[in-house]
Design brief:
The protein has 682 residues and is α/β, with parallel strands linked by helices. Helix 18 links the parallel strand 17 and strand 18. The chain has 29 helices and 25 strands. About 1% of the residues have low confidence. Helix 11 packs across helix 29 and helix 12 runs antiparallel to helix 13. It is globular. The chain is 39% helix and 17% strand.
């Protein structure tokens, strides 16, 4: 009997394809167990959708890879066990071939040929780790050292991957273990938490006389890549190499191994300047510190997160990146969102809708502290946004800081990660104790018309200089400010709530009453970013088409609503946006041509694509990465023509392909990257 054990942790994006590959691979009537390490995303939902018969084994915590595998083995008594990473895609016949390899006398573990998606062979076979091999890799590099068995752990010979054979150990992304081997060896060593546990187990199998057999007829695609790109994971894997040597050979030989691995990481850290050396520097810090075992999640408690948002949760669109990132992080950390403290006091003549803005802010302040979701807290401090006066600016910082500190104390947030989106928060956070400071550089706020450019610009520059990390959604803005930020700059693309932005069959009744075809836009109708003149051109030149506008407006709307084919719905709650947008025939992004837009990366682009909508947009730099999916127009005439073409022909690609193109861009994945930047690369 065979059991397939897949350990998941925030694996929503990949688990479905893994499960769908099993049957053709030869799973037959095997039991399939997904052991979930307390994922807070849609992992379990995605698993059950892909394979309704899947057995879910929740660990109730992040038990690590070995802990998850052990839970799966315990639930599969009497079975051979195929252990898979959730990002594995088995080729047809792979399981059948692995079973045949496991039947070879003396074999306890069978492993497949692993490749990347493009067919490139992963060098997954390894020799027994020794100090000379670690030194050889440090001085020669893994590939060159691997050509000489005494000097390298990595098996690099191409012919070794073309024929069956044995190895001391192999990458543990996919491995079939016999019941006899499992019974003889017992459980995996959970104290490694992640990395080296499969190495230890396979070496232990060899000590007990069980061979690790490689079978090239069994093929699998391994997406992988996390260790290579994450400083936190690279550091953990590096430190565990030393721990493994200590457990197998004692402290003296472990000290020699530690020196060899330190040399390796130091050479790579010096050779790779900027962000390319970050993971090696993180490994050096881990090797110098090197506690006896990795600290499991929760010991010590991970830091909480305090985000100074550029919007207000209670009345702005909740699709903004700071809200979405913090909601995703709240599944793993305690989060406090501080609603916008503004960039200036609203004043007649310089601010639109002065009274309405003041009243809605006071209503928000009256809520003070609420918890909309578990682990996700929102507070609205009372600010005095007189940033033009040095004295009042200091008073405002003291006032807001006192309120935030009081709430942090109540929530137990003693040294949180500070995520700053609005530059005026710099005065508040500057003296506050923190684990790290991340500047979420979503926009150049000093370019906003109502801002005091000199004052706000100075705050931006302070944040650019003092933040531990500067996170950019615009590659253009990141490139322009590279001299100020250096290796601290990181591109963190916006995500999309894939599940939320799914098409519905029937639009809301009030939209259904609007005659089609419908050209639609949802979002803030702000004259500074939305080209109202272009919208008017569309209304005038497409009289048989309804122009549907959804969103709060600071622009005068009477020039548009005077057209009989324009329907402005005003503010619509975020929860209902996908239903309305499902009624669009074409979605538009009619942006102004200004510095703000040139540094923009609109979240709504991914939301439109997730809905499978044909998209027409004015041009801006970030669109360079989407030109195969979006009609881009440089002039008003071209925009009108592109809308006509989209109405007649649909999108550049079918709706299903447009949606598929953003499936990997979840907010959960973006939040995981933010956690790595804040906690793993310090």
């Amino acid at each position: 009997m065979l059991a397939i054990v897949i350990v998941t942790y925030f694996s929503e994006r990949v688990i479905g394809d893994c499960l769908r590959s099993l049957q053709d691979a030869g799973a037959g009537d095997a039991r399939v167990l997904v052991v979930d390490n307390d994922s807070a995303d849609g992992t379990i939902t995605a698993a059950r959708a892909a394979l309704p018969a899947v057995e879910v084994v929740p660990t109730g915590r992040n038990a690590g890879f070995a802990g998850g595998v052990n839970a799966g083995i315990a639930a599969a008594a009497g079975c051979d066990v195929l252990v898979l990473n959730p990002d594995i895609r088995l080729a047809p016949g792979a399981i059948t071939a692995l079973k045949e390899a496991l039947a070879v006398p003396g074999t306890g573990i069978a492993v497949p040929r692993l490749t990347a998606e493009d067919g490139t062979v992963h060098l997954s076979l390894r020799r027994r780790p020794t100090v000379p091999r670690a030194l050889g890799e440090a001085l020669l590099g893994g590939h060159r050292a691997g050509r000489v068995p005494a000097l390298g752990e990595l098996v690099v010979a191409a012919e070794a991957y073309e024929r069956p054979g044995t190895a001391d150990w192999a990458t543990g992304a996919a491995w079939l273990v016999s019941r006899a081997c499992l019974d003889a060896l017992g459980p995996l060593e959970e104290r490694y938490f992640l990395y080296s546990e499969e190495t230890e187990y396979m070496l232990r199998a060899g000590d007990h006389g069980f061979a690790v057999r490689y079978e090239p007829r069994a093929r699998a695609v391994h997406l992988g890549g996390e260790q290579a790109t994450s400083s936190r994971l690279w550091a953990l894997a590096t430190a565990n190499r030393v721990r493994l040597h200590r457990e197998r050979h004692g402290r003296a030989r472990a000290l020699a191994m530690r020196g060899a691995v330190l040399l390796n990481e130091a050479i790579r850290a010096l050779a790779r300047t900027g962000g390319g050396g970050a993971k090696h520097r993180a490994a050096l810090r881990a090797l110098v510190r090197l506690p006896r075992w990795p600290e499991p999640p929760g010991a010590p408690d991970p830091p909480g997160y305090v985000c100074f948002a550029a919007q207000d949760w209670w009345y702005h669109n909740r699709a903004h990146s700071d809200f979405q990132l913090m909601r995703a992080i709240a599944g793993r950390r305690k989060v406090l969102v501080v609603n916008s403290i503004g960039m200036r006091m609203p004043a007649p003549g310089t601010t639109t809708h002065v009274t309405r803005r003041i009243l809605r802010k006071l209503r928000s302040v009256a809520k003070f502290l609420r918890q909309p979701f578990p682990g996700f807290h929102v507070m609205s401090p009372l600010p005095l946004p007189f940033y033009g006066s040095p004295v009042l600016r200091r008073v405002n910082a003291l006032l807001v800081r006192a309120q935030v500190r009081a709430v942090c104390l109540a929530l137990g947030l003693r040294r949180p990660v500070m995520v700053v989106t609005i530059p005026t928060a710099w005065d508040v956070v500057r003296p506050m104790p923190r684990h790290a400071l991340l500047y979420n550089r979503s926009d150049r706020h000093s370019a906003f018309p109502e801002a005091d450019a000199a004052v706000i610009g100075a705050m931006e520059n302070e944040l650019l200089a003092r933040a531990d990390r500067v996170l950019y959604a615009s590659r253009t803005l990141m490139a322009e400010e590279r001299e100020l930020t250096g290796e601290r700059a990181c591109f963190l693309d916006h995500g999309v709530d894939i599940d939320h932005f799914s098409r519905v069959a029937e639009p809301p009744p009030d939209l259904a009453a609007v005659p089609g075809p419908r050209v639609g836009f949802f979002g803030a109708l702000d004259e500074f970013v939305v080209d109202v003149g272009l919208l008017e051109r569309l209304a005038a030149e497409l009289p048989q088409t309804s122009l549907v506008l959804i969103g709060d407006a600071t622009a005068p709307m009477d020039r548009l609503t005077g057209y009989p084919n324009v329907r402005w719905f005003g503010f619509v709650p975020y929860e209902r946006i996908p239903a309305y947008a499902s009624g669009f025939d074409v979605a538009i992004m009619p942006w102004q041509d200004n510095a703000w837009i040139r540094h923009a990366n609109p979240i709504k682009l991914k939301e439109y694509l997730a809905l499978g909508l044909p998209v027409v947009s004015t041009d801006f730099p970030e669109l360079a990465h989407y030109r195969d999916r979006v009609r881009v127009a440089a002039t008003h005439d071209a925009f009108v023509a592109a809308v006509k073409a989209a109405l007649a022909e649909g999108g550049p690609r079918p709706a299903a392909e447009l949606r598929a193109s953003v499936l990997g861009m979840s907010w959960s994945a973006r939040a995981e990257r933010l956690l790595e930047l804040a906690e793993g690369e310090r």
